[in-house]
From TrEMBL:
GO terms for molecular function: N-methyltransferase activity; nucleic acid binding; protein methyltransferase activity; S-adenosylmethionine-dependent methyltransferase activity. GO terms for biological process: methylation. GO terms for cellular component: eRF1 methyltransferase complex. InterPro entries: DNA_methylase_N6_adenine_CS, Euk-Arch_PrmC-MTase, SAM-dependent_MTases_sf, Small_mtfrase_dom. Belongs to the eukaryotic/archaeal PrmC-related family. This is Methyltransferase. Residues 37-140 form the Methyltransferase small domain. The keyword NADP does not apply. It comes from Spirosoma foliorum. Keywords: Methyltransferase, S-adenosyl-L-methionine, Transferase.
């Protein structure tokens, strides 16, 4: 298994990463099911990587009509659009202003209403409660250098998760929960430790494997 992981990382470093960077340097149009998206440079691409699509598969199995839903760190807004199409009352937030503009454009393209908030985590969401929060977090322990990198890097000391677990409970209804996706390549034990220290219930919901990489869908409740 270690040999397979090292081979995958080496191949990614020398082949996939340069190709991906070139692809992401231009605006791209993608279609996911019936949803059409424009992905500008600097905004997390939801179909090149498996994490967002795994959350999309999760939402497809849920009865969320009428629920108050938040996509935290929404990127292109794919999950927000999908939840809005299912009748949820959706808020999409992102720290990246480019992402907020992309969400607005994509919501218009797909004829759905989404409340879009430019926010660092919950900073601009004071007083709101949600039944479901979807989180595709930045989970690599490195300090981000710009807004685009904040979609990937959580800080060398996992500052994103420290702040997340200080705030999340205050934005969930009594029966509300968050669904978060993590990769085997991140420090899952450290993230789980931070959640437990914050008095959250950590429930392993599913462990799908995509493109040779194991993912973990984690259900969090206060």
């Amino acid at each position: 298994m270690d040999i397979i992981k090292r081979t995958r990382k080496t191949f990614g470093k020398w082949v996939l990463i340069p190709i991906t960077r070139y692809y992401l340097s231009k605006e791209r149009k993608v279609t996911v099911g019936t949803i059409q998206l424009k992905i500008p440079p600097g905004v997390f691409h939801p179909t090149l990587f498996s994490s967002t699509l795994l959350l999309l598969e999760f939402t497809a199995t849920q009865l969320i009509g009428g629920l108050k839903a938040l996509e935290l760190g929404a990127g292109s807004g794919l999950l927000s659009i999908a939840m809005a199409q299912k009748g949820a009352n959706v808020t999409a937030s992102d720290i990246n202003p480019l992402a907020c503009t992309a969400i607005k454009d994509n919501a218009q393209i797909n004829s759905v209403n989404i409340d879009i908030v430019h926010s660092d985590l919950f900073a601009k969401l004071s007083g709101r409660l949600f039944d479901i929060i979807l989180i595709n977090p930045p989970y690599y322990p490195r300090d981000p250098k710009n807004d685009a990198e904040k979609a990937w890097f959580c800080g060398i000391d996992h500052l994103y998760f420290k702040n997340l677990f200080l705030q999340l409970a205050y934005f969930l209804t009594d029966t509300g929960y968050a669904m978060m996706v993590l990769s085997e390549d991140c420090h899952i034990d450290r993230i789980q430790q931070l959640a437990i220290e914050g008095n959250y219930r950590w429930e392993l919901y599913a462990t799908p494997k995509r493109k040779g990489e194991m993912y973990y869908l984690i259900k969090l409740s206060a």
